[in-house]
Amino acid sequence: MRKFVLMAVLLLVISCGKETQTLKEGSWRAVLTIDEEREIPFLMSYKKDATMTFINAEERVEITDIKLFGDSIYIEHPVFEGVFKGVFSSETINGVFIKPSLDRVMPFSMKFGNDARFEIRSVPNRIINGSWEMVFSPYSKTEKYIAKGIFVQTGNRITGTIRTTTGDYRYLDGVLVNDSLKLSSFDGAHAFLFEAKVTDSAMNGMFYSGNHFKEPFAAVLNNQYELPAADSLTFTKEGFDVIEFTFNDTEGNPVSLSDERFKNKVVLVQIMGTWCPNCLDETKYFTEFYKRLNRDDFEIVALAFEYAKTEISAMKSINKLKKSLGIPYPILLAQSGSSDKKKANEKLPMLNHILSYPTTIFIDKEGEIRRIHTGFNGPATGDEYIKFVGEFEIFINELLEEEIK
Fold first, then answer.
1. Per-residue pLDDT tens for 303-348?
2. Which stretches of 73-214 are DSSP H helices?
3. CATH number of 2-112
4. What CATH number should be reported for the domain whose range is 230-401?
């Protein structure tokens, strides 16, 4: 970590005093280095108005916070923590990607004029269209978990996503060459790489999250496979009928469900983190829905569990998210210094567990918990997202139409 931070500082120092250059407008290819053998590639475009767009299949992530000093460059996501620091010419950028709160650093390079995410040397000899029943860490008793891969193949190109019981891996984009599958995604903060060998009905491979984590996975083709229902995984413990908490909002004011603003209203309690990509997808939808519904008898309150090391930096992340999305409902700081789910569960002991960020608790006008939804199927899941939105809005309207006894 220290070596890479010193590198970033050195890159900035040696550029001082140089005349600021410009980047070429058009397509760029970038890679984050995992180790000597592997890298996580992603595509992007640059415009003369000093904006970048990261590209993952149908996803477009707009980056506007780009600073140029001499030949030094600083690139930051509008919501997530994580910055690129490096030196650049008109056609290249080299440096390090840093997530300060987690002490994580990855070398990166970006090059103008290349729009191929992965190299293609030959045609595929497998077809992987459809749904796959997946298991991650299949040989571990404690780390094993299930998933569902959903892939679309067009020649060599593969797009799709992988759903788990806690969310999805967003927009995956890659290739199948012979029997080798490679998929990657980078949203400005979270870098994923999946590699696998494929037969006609099975695949075995490795998942890499940045350069700090990896785990094996196995899958079999199964177009009838479904994950457990998201409303069946988290529930209140015996003896608990309501959820209670008091946490501070971004103004430092304590907020509780017993406050007047929540009485006799349908309330959604969103358990989330500003660092969480599925939470971002859910928050975008909740923000749009809240504004569109525009009812006095409906409220949302979010509880943020932040890995930022201090309360000040955690509040800064919350305010950054609120400003970026125009969030109209309060986000309370429930925890800083760790996003560990076991520690989070200590703050909400009435739940059997917190299995996922996000988790959404539906509370009716009487204050009774009516449903707890674990995870979130974002736009990358296609039909699953459309299904969620439909069922969600029907259920909220049913709760709103109920009369107070």
1. 999 999 999 999 999 999 999 999 999 999 999 999 888 888 899 9
2. none
3. 2.40.128
4. 3.40.30.10
Q: Please check whether the domain covering 130-221 is classified as CATH 2.40.128.120.
A: yes
CB neighbours of 317 closer than 8 A, spacing ≥ 6? 81, 274, 275, 304, 306, 308
Q: How far apart are CA 12 and CA 16, in angstroms?
A: 7
- Nearest by Cα to 299 from 358, 364, 348: 364
Contacts of 272 (CB under 8 A, 6+ apart): 279, 282, 283, 302, 303, 304, 305, 357, 358
Q: In this structure, what token pair is assigned to residue 211?
A: 């350069």
Buried b (16+ CB within 10 A) or exposed e, 264-285: ebbbbbbbbbbbbbbbbbbbbb
Global pTM value = 0.90
pLDDT digits (tens, 9 = 90+) for 22-75: 899 999 999 999 999 999 999 999 998 889 999 999 999 999 999 999 999 999
- Tokens coding 360: 């959404």
Q: Pairing between strand 167-168 and 172-177?
A: unpaired
